[in-house]
Amino acid sequence: MAAPSDLDSLRERLREMDDLQAAASLLHWDQNTYLPRRGAASRGRHLATLERLLHERRVDPELRRTLERLERRSPELGELERDLLRVVSRDVERAARYPASFMVTITEHAAASFEAWGRAREEADFALMAPLLERTVELSRQYASFFPEADHLADPLIDDADEGMSVAALRPLFAHLRAALLPLVEAAIAERGEAGSQPALPLASVQEAAQMRVALRLASALGYDLDGGRQDLALHPFAIRIAQGDVRITTRVDPTDLAEALFSTLHEAGHAMYEQGLSAELNGTSLASGVSAGIHESQSRLWENLVGRSRGFWRYALPIVQRTFPELGHLDEEAAHRSVNQVRRSLVRTEADELTYNLHVIIRFDLELELLEGRLAVTDLPEAWRERYQRDLGVAPQDHLEGVLQDVHWFSGFVGGAFQGYTLGNVLSAQFFEAARSAIGDLDEQFAAGTFAPLHAWLREHVYAYGRRLPPAELVERATGRALSVEPYLSYLRDKYAPNLAREAASK
Amino acid sequence: MAAPSDLDSLRERLREMDDLQAAASLLHWDQNTYLPRRGAASRGRHLATLERLLHERRVDPELRRTLERLERRSPELGELERDLLRVVSRDVERAARYPASFMVTITEHAAASFEAWGRAREEADFALMAPLLERTVELSRQYASFFPEADHLADPLIDDADEGMSVAALRPLFAHLRAALLPLVEAAIAERGEAGSQPALPLASVQEAAQMRVALRLASALGYDLDGGRQDLALHPFAIRIAQGDVRITTRVDPTDLAEALFSTLHEAGHAMYEQGLSAELNGTSLASGVSAGIHESQSRLWENLVGRSRGFWRYALPIVQRTFPELGHLDEEAAHRSVNQVRRSLVRTEADELTYNLHVIIRFDLELELLEGRLAVTDLPEAWRERYQRDLGVAPQDHLEGVLQDVHWFSGFVGGAFQGYTLGNVLSAQFFEAARSAIGDLDEQFAAGTFAPLHAWLREHVYAYGRRLPPAELVERATGRALSVEPYLSYLRDKYAPNLAREAASK
């Protein structure tokens, strides 16, 4: 019987790829934390080489033949092996669509574009980026051409990040969400007033180490395992799984506002807890990873917002924060909770509050579709951006830095596929939270007592442990008993930000 | 003409290997600095996989054929290419001696032994290590068996680290050195008194960050380029080249003695300056590395001892040190210089002073030869160790922690080949320094003025820039005008530590 040896061979190949991936992840982590300035040039080459070796292994005909033989014996295999087979076959099939040379081209272009973006930002100069962005749009279209069956040019990129999603599914979802959010923002500001741009948790002096320490302490209280992780500074915070037992977070510190370090840490810890919660049996295989951008973001946002900005959490966290920062002693629970939940129509996505955040995302999603479809020229992008911000948020950027140059995504990879995950994540965060609350009971009371383990355990069991075993849609269905829906999210936002509107809606 | 395309293919292969090596180096650096506890297990596997991929590439028959074709066209090649061909051919020839499976065996055994060593140290228990060390001796002998032409079982391992060296060459050299050092230590202690175990630069409180900062500042003054490097904490300090523009050092801090951080930093900066000084044209090839353990150590010891423990250096450094640590304000230049140059017959190699250091190394060198030759059983090692320490240094370990368990080398790799480089380095440090001084003039005066660039430039031109282009012996000859000799070193030690003896010797 050939099956066991084919399985062994498959697992051996995947383990080697996992080891290469671990090395690539560490190179990437280091690039964003500790890499000396002069080491930057060669780092891109190291990463490109590992990417090439990974791609070679993915498209190795011998791997394909092994998969085909296993496919034919699928009924003999266990459930885990069948899930593995499905996922590896999908990865192989997608990797085989494009030649290795295309990957080299896009990697090199992305590195050049990223480097230019750094310079363009110094002078808030979009003209410097326009030709590079045009090339990026062209390469993104070329990527789509490797998937001729796709309905929309963005679909292959979206499907890479959020399996099963498409422009056809997202457009109505986002339109519905936008239509609900616009009046909700109005109502919230009418009820609560609009915040200024002052710090949410103001500090008088730079206390970088103390800020990081208290933020990490709270992340650890939520369930981020420090024996299998660590926290470092980075300009653009991220979480990264290097291997089992090694899932790291990075944090940004604002010297005058604790909220920056605190919420960026809780956010990244949410991503990290997902990866730390993968079932050990997935190790060394393609299943050992979060399943999609949207599901990943649902966990970072759930821990950051539904936990970290809840009333119960602040009853627990405020005394801890105040012990380290006595200057925040004037805040009571009510004031602290209000302070970290202010609403403001602003220009920068990463600084946006929970309520306006998705409007930023939907603007980018819509504009990137227009770019791909050729309905918007790159040179007209800043003006289109300005119009949409004026229309949806009532504000307009003074310069490109608070406009089109603010996000790294279009300047370090493809145009398309990178933004929808943020909003899918927000939407799903409430859907998962609602399901967990139905199962566990009053979470706010638990949070107030510093008890986060029941929620963590529920998420581990229903989301984290699976890794990539279930496609995102099936994972959502199984965990929450229903398909993805914006209703739990809108109802959460209404209850929290516009209770009067919520009551009106309920009494209708 | 096939030569250019063979050269291109060779360079492409070497570049890929260099990229894999960079990834392995970063994994190694991280393993010793920031790796979370739970990540330790999989890290060994990542490193083993990269080592295997590197080995596969080294023994690839296609590479061998390319080298053979280039060999035949050698007269058409430039000098750099011919040097490259020689070095790569040597690497390939040596790697092809053993099967990949042997490398996996020794790597796994080394990892298990290293892990056990950590536990054995906690309980100062040699019995725990004895069976593992026996296996290490066996594997070291097996390694030697792949080089049947070697005169001594240790020769292949010595030749790996210090090309061209052998037991036959080292035994008389070390015997001569030992015979000269034993009375020199006596004389120095008679002239200067023997130091106690008190700190050389005592600090009252833990000031880790300040210690690291001042040490790094001085390393940077010597010429360590911080734009292409960085400093982190590690239990066992090391320097590591990850790539061009990325050569890092690590440092150990003793809370009560600045000398630990200071001299470990200067030592590792010496290693790093060597790697930072490689000619840019060597990048991405097998030539881009220090040429041997001995030459490498000569540079760490030169900057640590011949510069960092010199009178001139302390005239320059003391005010800088005292600005950060006013509690050292009671020291004058004379006292500081004396304090960092105390002589003491001690038990621990890494804490030994310049004068006794090589006696520690020679004990290890002699004992490992006896182990390999089967003249000493592993179980008798502690007693043999004890006898030699009693004989050469007049002290005997109270436990295995200050005895046979102190060094990681025998417990994390082979027995053989790891120690001779330290003493070769000490010997060569003085030989290079003497040659530089002949060329440049009074270095001590320059050091006192904080001027280290002329020495650095001389070393870069005569040592660093070459990388592996010249075999060690040829490099020494070209740079110093003579073959390796212990005389410059003994004369340096005599002048510094036993001037009366030196005068007597001169007047005879």
Q: Can you walk me through this structure?
A:
Two copies of one chain form a homodimer. The first copy, chain A, has a three-stranded mixed sheet with strand order 1-3-2. In chain A, 62% of the residues lie in helices and 3% in strands. Chain A is mainly alpha-helical and 508 residues long. The first copy, chain A, is globular and about 65 Å long. Among the domains of chain A are: 3-150, no CATH class; 208-346 and 422-482, Neurolysin, domain 3, CATH 1.10.1370.30. The first copy, chain A, starts with a helix and ends with a helix. In chain A, helix 14 runs antiparallel to helix 15. Chain A binds chain B through residues 15-16, 19-20, 22-24, 26-27, 30, 34-43, 45-46, 49-50, 53, 225-230, 232, 242-246, 248, 283, and chain B through 15-16, 19-20, 22-24, 26-27, 30, 34-43, 45-46, 49-50, 53, 225-230, 232, 242-246, 248, 283.
The mean pLDDT of chain A is 95
Helix content of chain A: 55-70%
Q: Indicate the CATH topology of the domain at 208-346 and 422-482 in chain A.
A: Neurolysin, domain 3
Q: Which blocks of ≥5 consecutive residues of chain A have pLDDT under 50? A: none
The global form of chain A is globular
